[in-house]
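agent: user wants the full assembly modeled, not chains individually. Plan: 1) parse entity lines 2) check alphabet per entity 3) run joint structure prediction 4) return tokens. Steps 1-2 passed, two entities, 766 residues total. Proceeding.
--- entities ---
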Amino acid sequence: MTDILNALVVLANFVLIPATAYGAQLALGALGVTLIYGILRFSNFAHGDTMAFGAMVTILGTWGLQSAGITGGPLPTALIALPLGIAATVLLLLATDRFVYRFHRAAGSPPTMFVIVSLGVTFVMNAVVRFIIGVDDQSFSDGERFVIRARAFREMTGLDEGLAIRTTQVLTLVVAAICVAALFWFLQKTRTGKSMRAYSDNEDLALLSGINPETVVRVTWLIVAVLATVAGVLYGLDKSFKPFTYFQLLLPIFAAAIVGGLGNPVGAILGGFVIAFAEVTITYPLKKVLGYLMPESLEPDGLVQLLSTDYKFAVSFVILIVVLLVKPTGLMKGQTA
Amino acid sequence: MRGAGLYLLVGGLIVGTGVVQGWNTALLILNMGLVSAIMALGVNLQWGIAGLFNIGVMGFVALGGLAAVLVSMPPTTEAWAAGGAQILGGLALGAATVVAAVLVWARLPRRWRVWGTAAVVIAGFVLYRQVMPGGMAAVEAVNPAGTGYLGGLGLPVILAWPAGGLLAAGAAWIIGKTALGLRADYLAIATLGIAEIIIAVLKNEDWLSRGVKNVIGIPRPVPYEVELQANADFVATAEGFGLTPILASSLWVKLSYTMLFAAVLIILLVLAQAALTSPWGRMMRAIRDNEVAAEAMGKDVKGRHLQIFILGSAICGLAGAMMTTLDGQLTPGTYQPLRFTFLIWVMVIVGGSGNNFGAVLGGILIWWLWVEVEPIGAWLLSTISAGLPDGSLLQDRLLAGAPHMRYLTMGLVLILVLRFAPRGLIPER
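--- prediction returned ---
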């Protein structure tokens, strides 16, 4: 019995909890990608760098607050600086839309044109972020590091294995849940949210019913800025901030959005967790877990690590390909055009 | 007419660089520009002519680099003896698993095939993990500081260029078979993912190409500087031109590369141009412009797409092998998508997608810009920050920012070209 409990604790400590936090971060990122796809109808390759930009402004704000002696107490100071990051990202995205995308919308450019334009935007945002904060790792998490420490957990339960829950992991889930709830409330209940969904479902019909497309687009960018900044800050708090890793996050984020069904917000959340759990489970050495569960004679010799962590991209990629081949619209029905 | 003028302008830029920064720098830029032009030709074939959205260029370029190592480096006999057979066995097992999985998927009745395929894949993976790690460890244990990998075939490095093309073509065939039926955005993500995976393999599989320990000292197709300096005839000729032997030898080496690369580029350009104007090229463009209509006319859209995807990727692989030859080393850590995928895209778009001459022009022009933006940016930033107090935070930031000017410039160039001249400098005819 205690063996099973110990195995569960190890699994929770190294797989379930980190994967849940990572999944929530991916889900927030994928929601942004999927909203852009649903409303503006293109895959926004600049999303990873948008997240990096939002996180960067928040980090600068955090440093400012810290040097002024203001901290969040047990919570990371970055939470106080978050509105600043969101505001800056909103301005950035609205300006990008005004000066870059609006022209192509008016000209009726094909979706691939938008994608290539977004590559240009990626370059620029990448440069801006590196210019301002540099290319190095930045750690900006402060406050209480753990909610439960491994040692305290061991003493509390009398098990051999410890369970540590980091503040950033709990925070990620809470903040992500608030964001998602607010987003769905907005999309389902408010007039603007409804017009967004109508625009996404059938553009011509929406225009006929007097929906102003420019308002819909502006609100979309606004929401995307909030989601991207929150995702970027949470990821940075949980791991660390490095501009290049944010660019690389594009792959799991897109995989999550596509696996869930591009253009479908519920699917994006589902996809985020599917990708995160697969990635963490497959790249974690399961030896310890199996060691508790199996009789001693059957205990595995190796680490039972299916893939080294360097191949985590391969996991999201394989899931992506399998879903696309088996069910091209994604797990939840997304838009196909 | 306009094209000729633009080519003259690019020539002028190279000559100007030679006059201002020295001919070594100019030839360095030109050589890499020629390689970039070949990559741009490959992407232009896929995007400009067939409309395929491949953003995994980096992966194919890296495979070409791998070919350079596998073909030209001397074999490590000790390592082969230690674990070569085991690794070959493991690889064969892996390949057999994939083939078996595909067959099971195709042959079994619908309700069984998911389970059957999964069973084959899992069994194959377990077997593979039994065989492969032992061989890898044995090979990597052989003199890890010097070799620690299987080495290559020890053949002349020129042979690596077509081999790089073949390797990339093989990868493209696998990718194309699975991903080409997908929508443009999906193909883009799939190729982006494949490229990251290829780089991850190169970084981690030490037995193959030493991973991040890099392979250095890849043999050259041209003479070494020291050999030239020891050659009395060469020294005499150099002095006849009024050059020191050291300068003359380094210029001659670079010039030899330039001639080799230019020859490859011209051959490929002639072929690409012939393909573009042939009935095959017209069919490709017809498919690009309207897939449904082309299919209704009886054209095999999927087959043609696969064909041109493989051709374009092979050209990128060839260019990748040439680049690794020029560098004389394979450094997997330096492959970054912004530099090796998206920069090539900027070249094609700026040059003029759909026009081979445009792609080549864009390749050389954008490469020149990519290299020169850094010194220009550094000069600009130091001028701006000169008025600031020394050692101030802002000044530090500005000066440290010079390398990032490249990304900024490329992004702005791409956005501006797409807005004001979406057809590029030399538009498609």
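agent: reporting back. The first strand of chain A starts at residue 146 and ends at 148. The mean pLDDT of chain A is 88.
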